[in-house]
Specification:
The complex is a heterotrimer of chains A (211), B (407) and C (132). Chain A has a domain of 89 residues: Four Helix Bundle (Hemerythrin (Met), subunit A). Chain A is 63% helix and 1% strand. Classes of the chains: A mainly alpha (211), B mainly alpha (407), C mainly alpha (132).
Chain lengths: 211, 407, 132
């Protein structure tokens, strides 16, 4: 079998897909299994980076670059900062009870079976793409965000279908991001830290009890 | 090159792709590693001359040319230490993460008209995105070293890099807007000709944006005067305090690679890329299209042209490092948030209005119906007409062929 | 063969592996499987982790699984003759999901930091002040 695999043409698209998909899934499972919060963050970075590779393979280059810049380079850096700010020795690995983990595993496995069955159920999704396709370009997406649809409608769409641009969602998301980030910055401003619950230290007692 | 291997040499298709990818990767690796070798020597010599001394003069003759090689041999022979409380896996992986980010950004960087690892339509975006991933190597190194000073250095550097990505992005958008494409090859091609075609001299706003870009790029790669992450006088050596030997040299290859990358990006975006101040090829009557040896020679000249400009940028960065004093972290943040970002935003708006103020600019943009825009895009480069083989302008990209499975 | 029929399970499994050989081109189903695994890993992570940041990481995984699905449906490379593509809309949806995930992660992190400042722990099992 190995010999026949070697003699047959290796479709590098499939090989690269398997590499990226394998990395993404393996590191996602590693996030679930790992105990140390910093290692979990690192595995998540690798998983999302591999997902960006998957996006590039599917021809969505702009989305792949967005994933790398915003998700991996922004959101995950924020997450890692949060991990660093809140990770202290007793809290780096907080374990869940075994019962909870077994129950979660069973439910997760059931969910996975349902999703896989749905993934394999539609015949149209199982036939691979063939032929020559125009190079992926970011222009249709950019124009769509300005409200003008220049891309071809997918084959089989009725010609009278009016396709809307994405200008309004674009503006809404911009304002949304501004509001959310201002709110988050306000929420996370530095405040006086209280003593941990139930622990009375000597100096707290001396200064007249916890506030 | 893959087509050459498939058609002329007759290799099976899958093997041709592997060899092409391997050659491209080996070339890029040589650029980074060879560049690091040269830049380390250059840095020591420049630092020495600025400080009124001589620098390495013994290894390899009068100018100490083999000093980098000697350094490399020394680093290979060093003991591989790891601090006791360090997180083993993260400690060992951190330098490679940093180096991978630096290396991956070279994939989309064109060295001449057809000398590009992968010609991405979103080239500029991809390069800037991947540059921002280098910060993970730094954070991991700082955390995994189990040392307070490493962690401080890493956090400062992460804050700095992430903050400076904002004005960097705004500076990079201006040439994209002038060229109309994020494709680095297209942006450089539009600056072909005499030096007046360079975007640097396109309008005063772009000129100012170029200097803001230089500031943000220097801050992004953590070079002085923004190098408080490696501040020897304050933090021992910041995030790479506990690293020695080859692991440390990986961090430095990543740093010099990034320096070369942002300089090459500046050259591509603002200074014409591989098109020189004087259009040598045009004057000689050659063109850089695909095909025979003369065109290959033209592209080779362009490649050396771009590498020369990038090296000039790196040398200027070294010059600035040994001239200016180091900034504090609050000064770094002030520069970013109070100076670079507003100036970049204002200049971006200015460049945008300059484009509109060109004759017919305003009307051209606002009066075309959606259908006409769509037709224009379909007939242009990269659109559907290009895939069909009709309407192919000079800088058009041939359509992608999916791998056909041989029956 | 009907995937729901347990008698056909061996053939379904065989087709699962046959679909994954190195020389076959990739189809939408491959991407959907990856999306399903990422989604399930995210759900399990959200349920199992006691660290608030671990829960946040689970949320990111869930959103990424959904993004993989959207991008697969939008890709012109993956569709067969009988089209399954939703074209540019899939990419636009994935774009907005990325943006909204960034916003949501920022807020969740701010909440977590607040919680940490008030209770000196990120263990969400200790977030029971309103209980009973």
């Amino acid at each position: 079998m190995i010999a026949s695999m070697m003699l047959a043409a290796i479709n590098w698209h499939s090989v690269l897909f398997l590499v990226f998909a394998g990395l993404a899934c393996a590191f996602a499972v590693a996030v679930v299994v790992a105990d140390n919060i910093v290692r979990m963050a690192f595995y998540l970075v690798l998983s999302l980076g591999s997902t960006a590779g998957l996006f590039f393979l599917a021809g969505a280059e702009f989305i792949g670059s967005m994933q790398l810049m915003i998700y991996v380079g922004g959101t995950l850096v924020l997450l890692v900062f949060g991990v660093m700010l809140t990770a202290q020795a007793p809290f780096i690995s907080i374990k869940t009870s075994t019962n909870d983990r077994v129950l979660a595993g069973v439910v997760g496995a059931a969910l996975l079976v349902v999703l896989l069955q749905a993934a394999f159920s539609v015949e149209a999704w199982r036939r691979p793409g063939v032929g020559e396709v125009a190079n992926p370009s970011a222009t249709p997406l950019g124009m769509a965000l300005l409200g003008v649809r220049v891309d071809d409608p997918p084959a089989g769409t009725s010609p009278s279908l009016v396709r809307s641009g994405y200008l309004l969602p674009f503006e809404i998301v911009s304002v949304h991001l501004l509001v959310v980030l201002v709110g988050a910055a306000y929420l996370a401003r530095a405040k006086r830290r209280r003593t941990p619950r139930g622990i009375e230290t000597a100096d707290v007692a001396a200064s007249g009890g916890p506030r | 090159m893959a087509d050459f291997l498939i058609n002329t040499v007759g290799l099976p298709e899958w093997l041709a792709w592997v060899i092409t990818a391997g050659v491209a990767a080996a070339l890029i690796l040589n650029v980074i590693a060879g560049g690091a070798l040269v830049f380390i020597w250059a840095e020591r010599k420049i630092a020495a001359r600025i400080q009124d001394r001589l620098g390495p003069t013994r290894t390899g003759g009068r100018f100490g040319w083999l000093q980098s090689l000697a350094d490399g041999i020394k680093l290979l022979g060093k003991e591989d230490l790891m601090p006791e409380g360090a997180d083993g896996m993260l400690f060992q992986l951190a330098p490679y993460v940093s180096f991978c980010a630096s290396f991956c950004a070279f994939i989309a960087l064109p060295f001449a008209f057809d000398f590009v690892g992968q010609r991405l339509n979103v080239g500029v975006f991809f390069v800037v995105a991947v540059l921002g991933l280098e910060v993970f190597g730094v954070i991991l190194a700082g955390y995994a070293s189990a040392s307070k000073w490493s962690l401080f250095g890493a956090m400062r550097e992460a804050a700095q890099v992430v903050s400076y990505e904002v004005p960097l992005g705004m500076c990079v958008v201006v040439p994209v807007m002038l060229a109309g494409s994020m494709d680095l090859v297209t942006i450089a091609e539009k600056q072909a000709g005499w030096v007046t075609n360079w975007y640097l001299f396109h309008d005063p706003f772009t000129f100012v944006i170029f200097w803001v870009y230089v500031t943000c790029a220097v801050a992004s790669v953590n070079r002085a005067p923004f190098d408080l992450a490696e501040a020897e006088s304050e933090l021992v050596a910041g995030f790479h305090t506990e690293y020695s030997g080859m692991r440390w040299s990986f961090f430095f290859m990543a740093e010099y690679g990034s320096m070369f990358l942002v300089s090459a990006l500046a050259a591509l975006l603002f200074m014409g890329g591989w098109n020189g101040p004087i259009p040598v090829a045009e004057l000689l009557g050659l063109s850089a299209g695909t095909g025979d040896t003369a065109n290959y020679f033209v592209r080779l000249i362009g490649c050396f042209n771009l590498m020369g400009k990038a090296t000039l940028g790196v040398l200027v960065m070294m010059w600035v490092r040994w001239t200016l004093p180091r900034l504090r972290i609050d000064q770094v943040m002030t520069t970013c948030l109070k100076y670079c970002t507003p100036i970049a935003a204002a200049m971006f708006a200015g460049a945008m209005f300059w484009q509109l103020a060109l004759p017919g600019g305003v009307m051209r943009g606002m009066s075309r119906p959606a259908g006409e825009i769509r037709e224009g895009w379909l007939e242009g480069p990269g659109g559907r007409a290009a895939a069909r083989g009709t309407a192919v302008p000079a800088a058009a990209v041939p359509p992608k062929k999916l791998m056909q499975v041989q029956p | 063969m009907n995937p729901l029929n347990p008698m056909h399970a061996p053939t379904v499994l065989a087709s699962l592996f046959a679909v994954n050989l190195l020389s076959d081109p990739v189809s939408v189903t491959h991407y959907l499987v990856v999306g399903a695994i990422l989604f399930t890993a995210g759900i399990v992570c959200m349920t199992v982790k006691r660290n608030a940041l671990g829960v946040l990481m689970g949320i990111e995984l869930v959103l990424n699984g959904a993004n993989v699905n959207f991008v697969a449906f939008s890709s012109p490379y993956l569709q067969g003759e009988q089209t399954a593509s939703i074209g540019l809309d899939g990419q636009a949806i994935a774009l907005f999901v990325i943006l909204l995930a960034a916003a949501e992660a920022a807020v969740a992190l701010a909440i977590t930091l607040n919680f940490y400042n008030n209770h000196s722990t990120v263990d969400i099992d200790q977030a029971d002040d309103l209980k009973g």
